[in-house]
Design brief:
The chain is an alpha/beta fold and 396 residues long. The chain folds into 2 domains: 5-27 and 286-395, Alpha-Beta Complex (Aspartate Aminotransferase, domain 1); 31-282, Aspartate Aminotransferase, domain 2, CATH 3.40.640. It is built from 15 helices and 15 strands. The strands form 4 sheets. A 7-stranded mixed β-sheet has the order 2-8-7-6-5-3-4, with helices on both faces. A 4-stranded antiparallel β-sheet has the order 11-12-15-14. Strand 5 (152-158), helix 8 and strand 6 form a beta-alpha-beta unit. 46% of the residues are buried. The model has no long low-confidence stretch (mean pLDDT 97). The chain binds pyridoxal-5'-phosphate. Pyridoxal-5'-phosphate binds at residues 83-85, 110, 158, 162, 187, 189-190, 210, 222.
Length: 396
């Protein structure tokens, strides 16, 4: 099995007309994902929503078994939610913590997660420990481990930050969590789909991610993995009649599986589309995807590094498909707009997305160009030429 880039691009109509380097925002879905969703919606129109769900049960169940396969987990350890943030929230707010209990994270933690830490600090009196980074941006693992104490009730880190190519050492942190016997929540929103993720090898107890980024699924859908062994130690922040059974006036019992974190109503069409996207991903060699994406991103960094005034902002020993850079004299939003005129999609990463990392480095805004396997060396060259042309124009 190897990646047939021509076929993968033929399956992806969006690649015909533009250079899509916004895969960390939302990747281009394969045609069959969109077809499955539109077919589903059409059936809802023709026979009714509940009737469609009954007829399509196998396809609606597929995301659970497919995610189990992808992550080396079990289908009953998966919950599907409306996005990665809610998936992460359902896990985080389910961890019981008393005043003085501590959560341990890194400097590249995602903004929404950190805001949730702050909310529980203000409301519940928890304390937040942030492990320092080494000069190259890597988390200082020795310092990380030293920060664990008897009140550490959760380790919560982001695998790949939203604003940089750095890949945090998720498995090394898993080993630390195991040694300390502390539950471990991994935000894998930017890593699932661009690299192999094995929850056993990583050793995380909970993991959240989205469909729309490197898994190439639809928008409006995310998922949560919860290890069986930890399920009953968590107290879901919301319950309803899907998550629990109501026995008597004063008695309810949670359902047995991780779907206790779900709500029953959702976009059923998106769920079917997600199943198709997962099957598409499972049919491809993940190790090869990881190598290709990292190599294309490294080539882009090398090309951009030669452009006068461009500073690559990615740090860390291990880097993935996210490339961030600034260009002196051209604000990132202006560059994004100029690239869009050339049919090149990127996004602007802002300091608020990963404050603890970017503010001390004096970065306010930067361009984020994120690569997927369907991108090509030719697109890398054309992108670098476009940035070069802007730099020349600006210098005149
Ligand atoms: C690292 C990380 N975590 C979480 C999220 C939130 O994902 P969602 O928009 O699906 O809630 C993002 C979104 O960009 C992200 O980059």
């Amino acid at each position: 099995m190897s990646l047939d880039i021509a076929r993968l691009r033929a399956d992806t109509p969006g690649t015909a007309d533009l250079i899509h380097f916004n895969n960390a925002g939302c990747a281009l879905p394969p045609r069959e994902v969109v077809d499955a969703m539109t077919d589903y919606l059409r059936l809802e129109m023709e026979i009714g929503g509940y009737e469609t769900a009954a007829r399509m049960k196998t396809r609606l169940d597929r995301p659970y078994s497919a995610l189990a396969e992808l992550l080396n987990a079990h289908a009953d350890e998966i919950a599907i939610l409306e996005n990665a943030t809610r998936a992460w929230d359902m896990a985080f707010y389910a961890v019981r913590m008393a005043p003085g209990d501590r959560v341990l994270t890194t400097r590249t933690e995602y903004c929404s997660n950190y805001i949730a830490f702050l909310q529980r600090a203000r409301r519940d009196g928890i304390e937040i420990d942030v492990a320092p980074s080494l000069d190259n941006g890597d988390v200082d693992l020795a310092a990380f481990e030293k920060l664990i104490g008897p009140r550490t009730k959760l380790i919560a880190i982001t695998h790949v930050a939203t604003s940089g190519g750095l890949v945090n050492p998720a498995a090394a942190i898993g080993a630390i969590a195991k040694r300390a016997n502390v539950p471990y929540l991994l935000d894998a929103c930017q890593s699932v789909g661009q690299m192999a993720i094995d929850v056993e090898a990583i050793g995380c107890d909970m993991l959240s991610a989205t469909a729309r980024k490197f898994l190439r699924g639809p928008r409006g859908i995310g998922f949560l993995y919860v290890r069986r062994a930890i399920l009953d130690r968590l107290d879901p922040p919301f319950l309803d009649d899907f998550a629990a059974d109501w026995y008597a006036d004063g008695d309810y019992r949670l359902r047995a599986d991780a779907r206790r974190f779900e709500t029953p109503e959702c976009s059923f069409a998106a769920k079917v589309g997600f199943g198709v996207a997962l099957d598409y991903a499972l049919a491809l060699p993940m190790a090869e995807i990881e190598t290709r994406v990292a190599a294309l991103a490294a080539a882009l960094r090398a090309r951009l590094g030669d452009v006068p005034g461009v500073a690559i902002q990615d740090r860390g020993t291990r880097r993935c498909g996210i490339v961030t850079f600034t260009k002196t004299g051209i604000p990132a939003p202006a560059m994004k707009a100029m690239l869009a005129e050339r049919k090149i999609n990127v996004t602007v990463s802002v300091a608020e997305a990963t404050r603890l990392d970017l503010i001390p480095r004096g970065i306010d805004k930067m361009i984020r160009a994120s690569i997927h396997y369907y991108n090509t060396e030719d697109e890398i060259a054309r992108f670098a030429e476009a940035v070069e042309a802007m730099a020349l124009e600006h210098a005149r």
